[in-house]
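Re: that chain you flagged

S.,

Sorry for the slow reply, it's been a week of failed gels. I finally had a moment to sit down with the sequence you sent. For the record, here it is as I used it:
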Amino acid sequence: MDISFYTAGTGAKSQQKKLDVVANNLANVNTYGYKAQKEMFVDLLYSNVREPETTDTQLRVGSGVRIETTDVDHRPGGYNATDNQTDFAINGNGFFAVKNPRTNEIFYTRDGSFKQSRFQDGKFYLTTSNGELVLDRNFEKIELLPKGTLASEFAKNGPAVFDFAIKDGMLRKGDNLFSPVPKNGAPIYKPNVTVTRGYVEASNVDAGNEMVRMIEAQRAYSMSLKMIQTSNEIEQTIESLRG
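Prediction finished late last night. Pasting the structure tokens below so you have them in one place:
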């Protein structure tokens, strides 16, 4: 009975993690630039059922499932007009580059709902809502005039778009920020990708689809718990017969 307990347990645990992913997607359905996540299941070890004489049969018993990775859906979302001169939306693939002013670490984001922030040098710079500096094509911070106008021509000092040959595996750092890993390669400047001012990219979460996935996960979770309960009842019956 150990196999049935273990299989049901891994199933319930995996469905709980799926519910967590779905809940996070739904919580960010109105978050600018948010990219939906989707869990990837894999089967655990299979073993052949043996006869008492240790002869292999054609029957195979699995050991359950687990979530191996959580992938990110990088497809663009819709676009919302804000008429805010510090908001920008990418028309196509790619990311804005932003830098943490304290650690100088560079991250990448699709969330273009930027702000005008004044720094200790008395100048205004384009930043994220959390204070990361938005970078131009040369990875330099973008200075703003007091009313939010870019200090120089947009083609030179506006927010630049960068992309990666491989997006899989980029690390989420919270606040809609991504950090590349070695397999993603170096950032590639995309001069032909246009950026629209006064717009922001909406979340690409499909709320209807996420509700369906939530119902599926809840049902699978309930079935796994029922399997654990049934296995326990069978185990108790066997023990009572032996006694």
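What I noticed first: The chain has three helices and 18 strands.

Talk soon,
D.
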